[in-house]
Amino acid sequence: MSKLIFKSLVMKNILRLISVFILEIALIAGCELDLAPYDSLTVENLSLSDQGIESLANGCLMMMKENLSYSQGQEPDPRDRYVRHLNQLTEFPSDNLMIVKSTTDNLWYSFNMQHIPGQINTTYIWFIGYKIILNANNIIEGVDLNENTSNRVRHLLGEAYYYRAMVHFDLARIFSTPPSHGLDKAGIIIRTGTSEDDLKARATVGETYDQIISDLKKAADLMTTRESNSSESIKYGSKWSALALLSRAYLYMEEWDSAVSYANKFIPDNPDYESQSPFELETRENYVNSFWNSTQSSEAIFIFYFTPEEVHGEASIGSMYNAGPTGTEGWGEIFPSKPLRDLLATYRHDVRNNLIDTVFKDDGVTIKNYPTTLYPTFYINKFSNQDGIVPLASPQYIRLSEMYLNRAEAYAHMGGHDNEALADVNIIRQRAGLTGDELVTTGNLASHGYTSVLDAVLNERRLELAYEGFRRDDLLRNKINLDRSFPSAQNPTEGTDILPWDAPRQIYFIPVAETINNSACEQNP
Amino acid sequence: MLRISGLLVFCVQLAGAQVNISGVVTSSDDQLPLIGVNVFIRGETRGTVTDNNGYYLLRVDSRSDTIVFSYVGYQEQKVVPGINDILNIVLEPEVRQLEELVVMAYTEKSKTEISSSVISLSADQINDVTAANIEDMLIGKAAGVHIESASGQPGEAAQIRIRGVGSAFSPQMPLIVVDGIIGGSYNPNDIESVTILKDAGATGLYGSKAASGVIIITTKQGKKGKTQFNFKAVYGLKTPETGKFEVMNGEELWYYHKQVFDPAVFSSVRPSYLKTLNYDWIENSFTNANIGNYYFSVSGGRDKVTYHISADYLADEGTAINSDFKRINLVSRTTMELTKRVTLETKISGTSSKSLSPYWTYTEMPFRMIPWDYPYDSLGQPIRDVSSWYSNTSSNIFHSSKYNKYGGSGAGAGADVRLDIRIFDWLSFSSLNSVGMGYGKYEEVESPFTVEGASSNGVVRNYLSYSTSFGTINLLKFNRAFGKHAVSGLIGMEGGTYFEEFDVGGFGQGIFPNQDILSVAGKGIPSGNKRENNSISFLTQFNYNLLSKYFVTASFRRDGSSKFAPENKYGNFYTIAASWLLSNEEFLDIPSLNLLKLRASWGAVGNETFPDNTFYPYFTSYSFLYKYNNQSAAFPDNMGNAFLSWETSYPFNVGIDYGMFNRFEVNIDMYNTITKDLLFQDPTAYSKGFKFQWKNVGEIRNRGIELSAQGDVIKTSTLLWNVQLNIGTNKNTLLKLSDKDVNQIELNANDIYQVLMVDKEAFMWYMPKWLGVDPDNGDPLWENIIYDENTGEEIDRVATNSYSEADFQPVGSPFPDFNGGFGTLLSWKGLRFNASFNYVYGNEIYNATRKEIDNDGANNNLVAMKLKKDWSRWENPGDNATHPKPTLGGNKNSYENSSRFLEDGSYLRLRNIKLSYSLPKNWISKILMNEVIVSLSADNLFTWTNYSGMDPDVPLYRTSTWNLPGLSYFKYPISKQYLVGVEINF
User: Fold this and answer.
1) Cβ <8 Å between A56 and B634
2) Residues A217-261 pLDDT 10s
3) Mutate to test the interface with A, among B457, B612, B686, B748 (most CBs of A within 10 A)
4) CA-based Rg of chain B, rounded to a whole angstrom?
5) Complex confidence, ipTM
6) Is the Cβ pair B860, A101 closer than 8 Å?
7) Nearest-10 crossing angle of helices A205-222, A151-175
8) Dist. CA A173–CA A90, nearest whole Å
9) B862 and A104 in contact by Cβ < 8 A?
10) CA 20 to 30 Å from B854, out of A284, B486, B610, B755?
11) Residue partners of A364: CB distance under 8 A and separation at least 6
12) Contacts of B493 in chain A (CB under 8 A)
């Protein structure tokens, strides 16, 4: 074809090409390569505002009750929650409970005491515990405390200290020996900054508890309550929860005077009593309900609050204890042990018996055995029935009754305060509905089967604080061997089963996920 | 006078009168008539076809019209009749070997020109297997390409890996390119050919996304000529396959428990009537199912337009409870010559699918259930209250599955538009643009009747996701020969964006039975999230060849990604490849030798693919996904890394291609790839508040040899026997770590560990070494390594029966010594038979299921596995047994992770066997068909292995961050498939 036509064709094509090309370049140039996620923020953004600090504080609480994925990329397991593992790791290895059969759930290791360093429940609680501490440290580093700081931010800063102390304390109870076994023994890793090295050694037990005390004191100074409404304020850290935890911490440290003086702030019979303290011992009539609906409890000081949408069925704390009236609303495989039942049965009208639901056969008289076993079935309902939903509960972390019992134990140890110790014990017993000779005096100790005032106090703690994770600590601190010579799946022959108080397996292994990446952290024996 | 009239007559004849042209068309290789050849006038639709004798008769308007003869598999001929009335045509078969064009990165090259390690497969070679995805079709077909058929879940694609672990820790899949569009969609029945690119020389032009190899799929296009209709149907039966795995029956389990429990309590907890009870949970939970695939296509074309339109329907029932997958695909691909120099191709596709997935209990619990538990009551209804069962479970899967539903649906549509402009003969411009939209819905309904839904009074979860993506590739290509030299190449830009809104929806509680929408829920929690990523690249390639004997290719690419820290968003990558086609040399003139090529390539290729939808890895983020007391709460989620940058691989490849008699071909490749700045989720000490941090941590080397050979052992005009085999080996070694204080990296899934130690083979299983059972007392024994307190050196190794004293050490490799496949094809007249096998040899699988069901009495609320022939339990002092003494509650943690559960995973599997018959043409032409093929085939017919678990085919590469190569756990079993098929062309 002619040159002219050829040229114009080529030109047409080149023009077409150019126009398409320009369009493409425009589209490509609009490609933005600096993108940020929609569902998260950096910590710098968060610390800039009061709203952000509050989200971080709420985050600490959220992490105590949510289930996050702790293994690389793995789906979170609904059973992994701080509050559930805390209860199970501290309560299950005690003489309060028995289990009807073995299970692949790692809670079994708390019964057969054959811990491994790779246990899922200990790894999870370690993992989430330090995440909570990281949130708290972010608040502590992010708040510039001066006279212009608002009350709200001041309070949130106090909450941060409280949560940090609380988690360090819980981890210390699980992974290290109590102070009474020696202040120089290995404690846990203390984290007080956000940019620390990976490699950090464990502090000693003494240093750990000193850090906890110091944080709690700062917390108490900075806080009052988050909300004015008392049933709302107990869902968050407060001045009261810090003071109450101080009583517990000093008790564990065997500093009896301080344990007493902090307990005194909650009890009206002495000059140290803080008149603003809104707490009163629950009545006998409302006793059971105060556990079921802890927001309505007059003695709850700090609770982990679960909303009615946050029902976790089988994975809830109450599930292992209670399968509900139909027997299908939970696992219901862990019952009060025979010795505990016998102790409660001493006085049938003791209100604490109502926390146990005996399961009868259709005749209403014979107790039903757990299927395929010879264990009579007893459900524990302390962590059930919030808003009428069987597996829902908001467990109380600290309550007023414990203050009385902390004071009682401190008195019992101090010597020369036996009557005061027993007086506190009796306040609890009276509330439970016991009277007259059913109360304990230095005179009738033997008739109750108690060998000493301390023994009476410890047994009262056992009855009152049952299933709340105190028994193991009480025995361990007081260097009493763990005697589980009663029927339970880990002891099917019902033979003698005694674990000495200083046996290595009283304490859990530090999770291998930590020791493998932190060579400075030494493992437990 | 006569001359003039003769001329006039001649002119008249030439000018307008219609003429009949006829003749016979034969094939050049066997001189036989070709039936069904399209004969038509160029530029018109009117035409005819040759009959049984190869004879045609065509009426033309003028003798100067061009007649086109077109037939599949033969080269087209155009002839002008001129003065002839009879035109006998001999058609040449399309030469397949050297001049065949292979689709490469952005271009096509002839086989001679390729300097890289490339595998080219035609549809025939892969379509023997019926599957929903290409991955399943490629198993065993290509050296160095390893595919695991992950699970029996219908619609789930297998994992595919090319050449060893490309990027050690980011589980990256090969890039799939469909008709030039990156990540495009396709229908397996539309596949025309597949090219697999393995080395840098071939993949380099795709840049970072291709670090793990590229699979290029070319789908069918229309061809000019009479319209072709194609119909294919395949239907068959699937049977669940559980390999060598067996659990004890009721009686065996009773006797086993007798060994475990204390005699004093045994008769009360395990009464003897239990021996008579035996419900086979596995057989009842996985039943036979059906699979059907129906495909129909229309293709054809006239002078300036060709088209291919297809519809495909797949219905794949799963063998598990409440499991199935249905999908419809529609594609329309048209190519239009707008002018002589401009071509426009459009492809519009749509897909819609619906699936039901089994809840995890339906596929895992059957392997754990105790045979004394019956799921149905005396009226045949599934029971709900399982408290009297022996098995440790809270629900009856037959009850839950009756009322609960878990499933999803999806739809997608895409449009690809490609414009090619030939500016000059040696210069052209291409623009490929694609737009895609996707929609997915995940739905769960848990009825208040069931255990799963009861505590919340019924739960409904609906999550929708919606995504849009856009991609564009614009290239300028040139191609010019100057005497002995030829150069070609391209230069261009590529960009893409992806945006997704996901998890939009929520979960609601308090649902009345049989209702399944969120609005009727008593209360609910909403959710919604979004994410996006963008990329932009510049690319160029240059090819040079001298005398068609010496070839060089070089390419360069610059990629930008939104996933890296601001300073490191861009990376530069380059490759170079060269080859020497010895068979074209004059000095090498051996008649039988038709191909001898030496080739080598090298390059630097970046990798930015993060797993599991990690879109923002460099960013330290606090997430707001959970609440406290209905208020917003933040928690530390991802530990960022301001220095995070590209991982770069340097693959070096050397290869030889050797072919004889145009019938046999051998390809050998040796490769050595070093990957630097490895992207790794480095675990941090948990006490810092994070579980890991993305870092560039070190260097790993991947090296191996691949060999593939294929040949026509017998080839006559009627009989063909072709054999192919391929084999590959690969070894990974960790070369160095950037943190000098650390000399190993551990990977962990569910507390099962693998380790990478510097200068040692990578990904070794890392756990205590099992030493067996103490003959004196039946205790488990592991190895404890004793170190010198001062020097830290190893002094001794002793046995210990305390698990916490046993030392973690490397105990075996999950990777095979070698693996590959082989197959054969026999074809005689219309009959065709082919079989293909794949094999893996020398790997160690960790059988994690044994921890739960082979644990020496630790857990008596699950069934126990039957012992293999060479296993035995310790009973009396002096016994040399493989299993410790069964003890209630476990025997000293004998079931904890150790090399006890590492097993040899070698296997040989008959992947597919197929017999097909193409009905004789003279029968079917009576019913106006061109071709009818009936076939019978079977997939996964036999597997030979010693592995005691369900399936020795385990992922040999890390499929996600919570998995490890070589790890085997309970899974949805794969199936054997028995299929009948028919294909009709008319």
Assistant:
1) yes
2) 999 999 988 887 778 889 999 999 999 999 999 999 999 999 999
3) B686
4) 32
5) 0.80
6) yes
7) 160
8) 8
9) yes
10) B755
11) none
12) 24-25, 28
